[in-house]
Amino acid sequence: MENEKREKFIVPIGPQHPALKEPGHFEFTVDGETVTGATVRLGYVHRGIEKATEDRNWTQNLYLLERICGICSHSHAMAYSLGVEKLAGVTVPPRAQAIRQVVAEMERIHSHLLWLGVAAHEAGFDTLFMFSWRDRETIMDILEGLTGNRVNYSVNVLGGVKVDIDAERADSIRKGLDLLEERTRHYLKVVTTDETFLRRTRGVGFTTTEQAEALGLVGPTARAANVARDVRVDVPYVAYAEFPVTMTLDTGGDLEARFVVRIKELFESYRVIRLILDKLPAGDLTMRMPRRIKEGETVSRIEAPRGELFYFIKSGGGEKPERIKVRTPSINNFALVTGTAVGHQLADMPMILAGMDPCFSCNDR
Amino acid sequence: MTITLGEKWNEALEQVKLWARINSPWAIHFNSGSCNGCDIEILATVTPRYDLERFGVKLQGSPRHADILICTGPVTLQARDRLKRVYEQMPDPKFVVAVGSCAISGGAFQGCYGVVGHIDQVIPVDAYIPGCPPRPEAIIDGVVKLLGSLKKGPEEQRSGGEEVK
Amino acid sequence: MTIQATNVTSAAQPDAPKGSPMQLLAQWTKGIKTPEINRLDILIDAADMLACVKVLTDAHWGYLIAITALDTLGKPATYAQDVRWKALLDAGATQAASSPIEVLYFFANGPQIVTLRMLLAREAATISSLCGIIPSANWYERELIEMFGITVVNTPDPTHLFLPDNWPDNVYPLRKDFKIEQISSTKIEDIHE
Ligand code: SF4
Fold it and tell me: Would you call C162 and A43 a contact, using CB atoms and an 8 Å cutoff?
């Protein structure tokens, strides 16, 4: 009788919600405290960038696409440049490619530290939030020193990069990385040993490898469930063939594993940046690009901090592209929330959402 | 029971309110379509390096407790009504800060079909902070300047409570 | 029955390695292109899409990266020779006036990318849902529905994903004939005016 009388409630979260930095709307159907269903409504930051690329020229698009997402701006610009360069048949000098990789890994560091803070904040662990954001300023300083801006660094130009790394700069980068590495070791210890924190993460939002594949998860979220997919390893782009990274995998499949995978990836990033700084190829930074890009279609895949970023670029031979399709990693990872919410406590929802590192502006474009 | 205060009292009360508002304004952040570059810089202002809280500014979640609305990004079709609603939910007097070139002019997203315009086409704005994104120092400077302008007499001070269509 | 395609670099090869997408999909293939060394574009009929995807997933060949579409408006030359276009024309003469919409399904297996490409008539663009085989395809299908006006049969959730609630009906922003004036009703007047 009790059960029959029980009513189902729908708990809306968002679009303006303290737990979300960005606007998205979630509806959770709950029975008591337990979630029985979840839906997502996106589009609060849908600007129509894919269409807008069709009336901007190839160079203007670089700056527009960079602004799809302020957190992974370099990934977008790099994926686009790589695609356009492929279409134009231009080979970018190795030094430029290596610098692209350095910045890409720096971006991963800043993004993962940012995420670590936000996720810790969702768990009510504000000390970790403050710590990780304080340390993140180190990488922000490095990025600013190197590129002149803290966010949207515009390192890429079509055909190369605009910044160079000299010996002095390399030294200051190394110093910053040493500091970060030490702090990261501390974070790894915290997220794997802090009792209270583990109660919020261990076993929460669990997916098996098969489920993760079926949900179409990508990036660290998938790798935490032992799905061995990393574009940097599978299809090395820029300089990843010469300066390879190893894939970080974890068999946990829960939130804890997602923390561990992301933090371990940071160590890989530190290592590979140091390696490149030691062996930075000499040479030019840019190649000349034609104004009109040859007719054709290409795809460009890179590993953004949140997972596989996919660009499909079609040129009609003119000054403007005919179609650019951007498939961002977050759109796939949202399936994690709708797919694993059922059966969890409502209070776990912000944590599960944070665990996939959502980026609404990437998604909505 | 209603308390009626004399002229002097009212004036004093206003002074106290103004003092309180300037020394501890609460802010809410609303993203109406930004690339979240501005948002992470706003978040950075509350973290140890920049620490906006030393000016008494607190970033919090509910519009009903907020004095300052910090807006980022161009206004998208879907967010426009939410932005207005958030603005209307804030108690008077309220102040709006537009952060970033997008919030000021639409920035890189001018002409996109999903973008209706910039913030001051939808709600009145008191302070503009340019940059793509503005540095955290610039954001703090903008907020502090806004607070400074409140110190001026009530005549020069904008009420911020203009009617919204 | 196999129709010989004319705009292809190589026809379906019966001697393709066993288990390769080329061999797996040979019976539905209407043409093959290899635009880049690691890419394979397989031209198929929309009706055969489900069968093709089923074969690929059963063979555990890669994973779905994205689904997208291209509006070919104003590009008659690109598909004039296409057998799939001719078949579309045969199916209904009304479509002759306009250009088709091409739908692309991208699958990746390591560095390999296979693209299933099919043409849909512009006025009656309909395709079956992939969600029965790959549930995560729903995200992309919702995008096809709202951005290109393609009807996806049997998709579990056909509601708006990105476009606002007050978006006018039958206006599809990623079609080439989309004009910004079509959504003027959703715009605002400036508060200063
Ligand atoms: S001003 Fe720049 S950083 Fe800020 S939302 Fe706009 S594009 Fe992003």
Answer: yes
Structure tokens at A103: 């910045």
B41 pLDDT above the threshold of 80: yes
* Residue A157 CB contacts under 8 Å (≥ 6 apart), including other chains: A62, A81, A286
- Distance between CA atoms of A113 and A118, rounded to whole angstroms? 9
Backbone angles phi, psi at B63, to 5 degrees: -65, -25
Q: What is the ipTM of this complex?
A: 0.78
Whether residue B156 has pLDDT greater than 60? no
Are the beta carbons of B165 and C164 separated by less than 8 Å? no
Task: Quote the number of domains for chain A.
Answer: 1
Ligand 1 centroid, distance to C86 Cα (angstroms): 47
Q: Which domains does chain C have, with CATH numbers?
A: 6-191 (3.30.460.80)
Q: Which range of residues forms the domain containing residue A106?
A: 48-330
| DSSP tag of B46 | T
A196 assigned to some structural domain:
yes
> DSSP letters of B92-154?
SS-EEEEESHHHHH-GGGTT-TTEEE-GGGTS--SEEE-SSSPPHHHHHHHHHHHHHHHTS-T
Task: Give how far B118 is from chain C: nearest CA, Å.
Answer: 10
Distance, in angstroms, between C164 CA and closest chain A CA? 7
User: Residue A58 is part of a domain; what is its CATH number?
Assistant: 1.10.645.10
Residue A361 lies in a domain: no
Contact in structure between A245 and A231 (CB atoms under 8 Å):
no
The verdict on pTM exceeding 0.90 is no
How far is residue A300's CA from residue A100's CA, in Å, rounded to a whole number? 15
**Residue-level pLDDT at B1:** 55
The residue type of C121 is A
Q: Which residue has the tokens 């024309």?
A: C89
User: How far, CA to CA in Å, does B126 sit from each of B68, B96, B149?
Assistant: 10, 5, 10
Residue type (1 letter), A250? D
Q: Choose from A299, A320, A337, A361 for mutation: most chain C CBs within 10 A.
A: A299
Residue A123 vs residues A15, A197, A198, A199, A277: alpha-carbon distances, Å: 20, 7, 10, 10, 37
Query: What is the whole-number distance in angstroms between the Cα of residue C172 and the centre of ligand 1?
Result: 27
Token pair, residue A12, equals 């809306």
C161 Cα to chain A: minimum distance (Å): 6
The answer to the question of residue A313 being in a domain is yes
Q: Which of A125, A274, A107 is nearest to A200 (CA)?
A: A125
State the angle between helix axes of B37-45 and A126-147 in degrees (0 to 180), rounded to the nearest 10.
Answer: 120
Whether the CA torsion B25, B30, B36, B38 is positive or negative: it is: negative
pLDDT of A253-287, one tens digit each? 788 888 888 888 888 888 888 888 888 888 888 87
Q: Please name the helix (run of DSSP H) or strand (run of DSSP E) that holds residue A290, with its range, or none.
A: none
The answer to whether position A256 is within a domain reads: yes
- Give me the residue label for tokens 């190649």: A287
Report the nearest-CA residue for atom 5 of ligand 1.
B34
Q: Show Cβ contacts of residue A86 under 8 Å, excluding neighbours closer than 6 positions.
A: A298, A300, C36
Per DSSP bridges, beta strands A34-41 and A25-31 are antiparallel
pLDDT value of position C19: 65
Which residues have a Cβ under 8 Å from the Cβ of A248 and sit 6 or more positions away? Answer: A220, A223, A261, A264, A265, A268
CB B33 within 8 A of CB B75: yes
- Chain C positions in Cβ-Cβ contact with residue B123 (cut-off 8 Å): 191
**Is residue C34 within 8 Å of residue C41, measured between CB atoms?**
yes
Structural domains for chain B: 26-152 (3.40.50.12280)
Q: Are the C-beta atoms of residues A319 and A342 closer than 8 Å to each other?
A: no
